Automatic annotation (TrEMBL), chain A:
Subunit of the oligosaccharyl transferase (OST) complex that catalyzes the initial transfer of a defined glycan (Glc(3)Man(9)GlcNAc(2) in eukaryotes) from the lipid carrier dolichol-pyrophosphate to an asparagine residue within an Asn-X-Ser/Thr consensus motif in nascent polypeptide chains, the first step in protein N-glycosylation. N-glycosylation occurs cotranslationally and the complex associates with the Sec61 complex at the channel-forming translocon complex that mediates protein translocation across the endoplasmic reticulum (ER). All subunits are required for a maximal enzyme activity. This is Dolichyl-diphosphooligosaccharide-protein glycosyltransferase subunit OST5. It comes from Ilex paraguariensis. GO terms for biological process: protein N-linked glycosylation. InterPro entries: TMEM258/Ost5. GO terms for cellular component: oligosaccharyltransferase complex. Component of the oligosaccharyltransferase (OST) complex. Belongs to the OST5 family.
TrEMBL record, chain B:
The chain crosses the membrane at residues 433-451. Pfam families: Ribophorin_I (PF04597). This is Dolichyl-diphosphooligosaccharide--protein glycosyltransferase subunit 1. It is a single-pass type I membrane protein. GO terms for cellular component: oligosaccharyltransferase complex. Keywords: Coiled coil, Endoplasmic reticulum, Membrane, Signal, Transmembrane, Transmembrane helix. Subunit of the oligosaccharyl transferase (OST) complex that catalyzes the initial transfer of a defined glycan (Glc(3)Man(9)GlcNAc(2) in eukaryotes) from the lipid carrier dolichol-pyrophosphate to an asparagine residue within an Asn-X-Ser/Thr consensus motif in nascent polypeptide chains, the first step in protein N-glycosylation. N-glycosylation occurs cotranslationally and the complex associates with the Sec61 complex at the channel-forming translocon complex that mediates protein translocation across the endoplasmic reticulum (ER). All subunits are required for a maximal enzyme activity. Residues 579-606 form a coiled coil. It comes from Ilex paraguariensis. Its main location: endoplasmic reticulum. Component of the oligosaccharyltransferase (OST) complex. Pathway: Protein modification; protein glycosylation. Belongs to the OST1 family. It is found in: Endoplasmic reticulum membrane.
């Protein structure tokens, strides 16, 4: 019965959820801002699709994790 | 009362003609009946002796049918070891059997012994039987001012297929009783009524007794309880319990006077109950108590390191026949309840209801496992009906698997731990953030598509063409500005090299810096030429062209002056003249340089604004 029975807990410690949520959302919003600034200031000719997509990807990763930790920190254990 | 007596009389007549059975002999039977709560608990200690020759491996327990349908929980255990070396009791398996040649209207349970009882050996068996709905309220309807009395029927002699040598019966109650059937050797003392000891009674002996007593304990009966246990691997087990309670005692007739009840609750409303206490695990958090209307604020919570006690008060006191329904929810930390062993995860949690002394007529336990769990199996210490469902919850794609366990007639003895085993790959945890990330990424892609797309209807109108040309002009101006900015950085490098010279005195490094600056400036001016030509040729750039040309001219001037200054300073250093001389020679040039720089900056700003 007691052959290596270990309790399972979350991969990220519970106490870090609010801090992680704030930092990841902040970084995500900064990268989103840089994405939109690039979109607004570049003209049709020297817009680079690769740069747009990478910025969008990085921003969505940070925003995705940030919103997940925000949900967890506010008690909606998804 | 008359109808009860007739039923039992027929049963006892039938039993009188029953044959003796088997070789077992019960040398001593002690029965204790606990009537202090609305759940009846009968503990029988049987001393079984094998009076025959063959080893016996099962002991039969008999219950009349009327009693047997109210059995909620039946266990038998035996204590290993004798005398001072008594170790813990071992519980034995019990099954329902249907032996032949037995008197009718009896239900049989067979206790299987661990090792057979051989000839002459004896064994002590502890049988606990828990009955629900056996205390009949008598009278069945009372007013608010009356106390609740119940009637309980039993047999003074232990009903058994074996011969019983010595037996006794003790009935424990809350202290007040109305009447009891007086047999020989029966007496009432304090809060107990004793029958016995009776000796050498034949098998199937039965003597019905009725005890009429006062019982004001809360008769909390939950007609339906749905317990939902949702596991989230991010660190929480959420338990939500929906109750449908009814007061199962004597129904109240007449009016309910709130004034009387508030003034003297123990006289007017002795049988009512006001609050219920639930025992929750020690680290329960986010506890709520609400019903269909909203939050119910009449609740208290206190606890220590072993448990948390939640005392809840329904919106009104519960009198006989009244109903209420509410929901209790709480969250539990994951590491107290979810464990892993050899690649299989299992949840270890209590099955029944945390509220004290509640009889549940229909208990449904739903365990919601996270998406991506497979190979689900359940192990419960008693018989339940189980099936699987799906529930769609937060961030789900296909839905979470739900194991539903259903049991009827549940008493607090059923509040044992049960396990749900399943397999889960930790990578499936990433499914949820990936869903959020892809959602945000789609937003960005939509933005990119919008910016790149050309939604004009007419591609040959003059306004559209003018706009295209203006876009080109803007791009060219950006290029010019870019080149100018690069020139400015090279100027900055030159200045830096001059400062280095004044610090280290290394003339050679300064000269080489000058050479590289020269070559890069030449390259930049070469780049600038075609761009300027493009700008001059386009018609839209008429307004901005003079400013750009001014900018280029000023920048060229600045370049020349800077070169002049640089060579002057280097000369001075080569001639090893003092610092003051350097300053003097450079002074006028420096003034011009600063003025030019200011103009260049202004022009850059103006062009930016256009």
């Amino acid at each position: 019965m007691a052959q290596s029975v270990k309790p399972i807990s979350s991969p990220v410690p519970d106490a870090w959820y609010p801090t992680l949520a704030v930092f990841m959302l902040a970084i995500g919003l900064v990268v989103t801002a840089s994405f939109f600034i690039y979109e607004a200031t570049s003209s049709q000719r020297n817009r680079s699709l690769a740069r747009e997509l990478t910025t969008g990807a990085v921003a969505s990763v940070f925003l995705g994790f940030g919103s997940l930790f925000l949900l967890l920190a506010s008690g909606v254990y998804v | 009362m008359r109808e009860i007596r007739l039923d039992l009389l027929l049963l006892s007549l039938a039993l009188l003609f029953a044959p003796a059975f088997s070789d077992l002999l019960l040398s001593k039977v002690d029965r204790r009946i606990d009537l202090t709560s609305h759940v009846v608990r009968i503990t029988s200690t049987l001393k079984v002796e094998n009076a025959g020759t063959d080893p016996v491996s099962e002991v039969l327990l008999a219950f009349p049918d009327t009693q047997a349908k109210n059995i909620a929980y039946l266990t038998a255990s035996t204590i290993e070891g004798k005398g001072k070396t008594k170790s813990s009791s071992v519980s034995l398996p019990i099954q329902v059997v249907h032996p032949d040649g037995m008197p009718p209207s009896l239900t049989w349970h067979s206790v299987s012994l661990l090792k057979g009882l051989s000839k002459g050996e004896s064994l002590t068996l502890d049988v606990l039987a828990v009955f629900t709905h056996t205390l009949r309220p008598f009278p069945e309807k009372i007013t608010q001012a009356e106390i609740q009395r119940v009637a309980f029927q039993e047999s003074a002699y232990y009903l058994s297929p074996y011969v019983v040598k010595v037996q006794s019966l003790t009935v424990k109650h809350s202290g007040q009783f109305e009447s009891y059937t007086k047999l020989e050797n029966s007496r009432a003392s304090g809060s107990e009524i004793k029958y016995g000891p009776y000796e050498n009674l034949p098998s199937f002996s039965f003597s019905p007794i009725v005890i009429h007593l006062v019982n004001n304990q809360p008769f909390a009966v939950a007609q339906e309880l749905v317990r939902e246990i949702e596991i989230s691997h991010w660190g929480n087990v959420q338990v939500t319990e929906h109750y449908n309670l009814i007061h199962g005692g004597a129904h109240i007739t007449g009016e309910f006077s709130r004034l009387d009840y508030q003034a003297r609750p123990h006289v007017r409303g002795a049988s009512a109950f006001r609050n219920l206490v639930a025992k929750l695990p020690p680290r329960a958090h986010s506890i709520y108590y609400r019903d269909e209307i909203g939050n119910i604020s009449t609740s208290n919570l206190w606890g220590d390191s072993t448990k948390k006690l939640l005392e809840i008060e329904p919106r009104y006191p519960m009198f006989g026949g009244w109903r209420t329904s509410f929901t209790i929810g709480y969250g539990l930390p994951l590491q107290d309840f979810l464990f892993q062993s050899r690649g299989i995860r299992f949840l270890n949690i209590t099955f029944g209801c945390p509220i004290n002394e509640v009889v549940i007529e229909n208990l449904i336990v739903k365990v919601v496992l996270p998406e991506g769990s497979r190979d689900i199996s359940v192990s419960v210490p008693f018989a339940v009906k189980q099936w699987e469902e799906t529930k769609i919850s937060h961030l789900d794609m296909v839905g979470r698997p739900v194991v539903v366990l259903e049991k009827t007639n549940v008493v607090p003895e059923h509040n044992q731990h049960f396990q749900v085993n399943y397999k889960f790959n930790n990578l499936s945890l990433l499914r949820e953030p990936l869903m959020l990330i892809s959602g945000f990424f789609l937003l960005f892609v939509a933005c990119v598509i919008y910016v790149h797309s050309d939604l004009t209807i007419s591609k040959s109108s003059t306004a559209y063409l003018a706009k295209l040309q203006w876009d080109e002009v803007q791009a060219t101006v950006q290029q010019v500005l870019n080149i100018i900015n690069r020139c400015l950085t090279i100027h900055g490098k030159l200045e830096a090299s001059l400062r280095d010279l004044s610090r280290t005195g290394d003339v050679q490094a300064c000269k080489s810096a000058r050479k590289s600056a020269d070559s890069s400036l030449k390259e930049l001016s070469k780049e600038l030429r075609p761009v300027l030509i493009l700008l001059q040729s386009s018609s839209q750039a008429v307004q901005i062209l003079p400013k750009v040309e001014e900018l280029v001219a000023k920048e060229r001037e600045l370049q020349e002056k800077l070169m002049l200054k640089h060579s002057t300073v280097v000369d001075c250093y080569e001639k090893k003249s003092g610092g003051r001389e350097v300053e003097n020679r450079v002074a006028s040039i420096q003034q011009k340089i600063t003025a030019l720089r200011q103009e260049v900056d202004d022009l850059l700003e103006i062009i930016d604004e256009i």
